[in-house]
Amino acid sequence: MDMRKTLDQAFRTAFGAAPEVMTRAPGRLEILGNHTDYNQGTVLSVAVDRATFVAAAPSGSTQCRVVDGVNRSECSFDVAALGAPNKGDWANYIKGLVVELEKRGIRVPGFHAVLGSTVPMSAGMSSSAALEMSMLLALLRLARRELDWREQAKIGQACENLYVGAKTGLLDQFSSLKGEAGHLVYSDFRSLAVRTVPLPAGTALVVANSMVKHNLTNEYNERREACEQAVRVLQRRTPAIAALRDVSLAQLEAARADLDPVVYRRALHVVGEITRVEAGVSALQAGEIGRFGELMFESQHSSTHYFENSTAELDTLVACGRSLPGAIGARLSGGGFGGITVHLVQAAQAAAYASALGQLYRERTGLVSDIMICTAADGALVY
Ligand code: GLA
User: Fold this and answer.
1) Phi, psi angles (nearest 5°) of residue 327
2) Candidates 172, 188, 260, 378; catalytic one
3) Sign of torsion, CA 308 313 316 318?
4) Superfamily name with CATH number, domain 203-374
5) pLDDT tens-place string over residues 212-265
6) Which CATH code of 3.30.230.10, 3.50.50.60, 3.30.710.10, 3.90.79.10 fits the domain covering 3-196?
7) Nearest-atom index, ligand 1, CA of 124
8) Please, are residues 124 and 339 in contact by the beta-carbon 8 Å criterion?
């Protein structure tokens, strides 16, 4: 049964009435441009055919009850008395939305909701942004209000930053909102402009979960701090530098002696990634898919050696993939420190590639990787 029917049924069972609104927001894969969003850089990402669905209706009071129909858990709270966030509680994402909407003058009525997700959790496919964006669209509908999509993305980011504690950028929410079937999303996190770029014909995306859980809050915030420190040092030579987006590889090399070696490596990754995104867009436009794949491998190398947000398992997945027929490019996707790798492969070889990758990974690590073939899907919507 499709997820919409399942949730409609689950909503009627839980709350004895039909839902008033149904929404869907996809997870995402980061294809090129790692940790560039909060450095005002650019990213190529894709919204995938794995999504979080929400069915909701007003409760008639300030009380809320949200049931996760897939993971069989639930939470209850009062929109008029939200209290402080409980660490590690998924309800934070939803309560955070209510608080952020209120800050923007939008009062959310008490509501009942059922949600269900096909996005793997804590893997690097932005299950949290998918939850935030699908729930946000539902809450806006219940409050009978509309918001510009960039503001919607900022609300999701604020939930992560303020209620969950990870100082993440806007990539996940942008990708979930602006995805387009068959396309990559090119986002510029300085101008906040977005456009889509066709995925090359005859290619497929294979996603492999390293099965090492990615819990990134501390490491992520530390990386962000190193990037900001690099900017402070670089500003001494060139005051016009506002973010790593403004720094060329030549400028970074010229200032290398001023920088702590670790800070230098972190900045080198980000500056290199922004260069690779731009080169990647040109390669796609020129139909040079092999060149695009090389840039993905270079990105992984940079994560491993400079940003140090890869793991032995992610490195192994990429190395295994690279040796297989049909391989075009592969790299970790998202924050890093565990989670998934994304592999761009020849579509005709995708199934064989996926099964061989799983086998090689098991031989080398003893771990059974959850492997899926994903397609590029449309962004978030209200049905
Ligand atoms: C996580 C964050 C994003 C982005 C990526 C790394 O997914 O949520 O904002 O920084 O990591 O590119």
Assistant:
1) -65, 135
2) 172
3) negative
4) GHMP kinase, C-terminal domain (3.30.70.890)
5) 887 778 899 999 999 999 999 999 999 999 999 999 999 999 999 999 999 999
6) 3.30.230.10
7) 7
8) yes
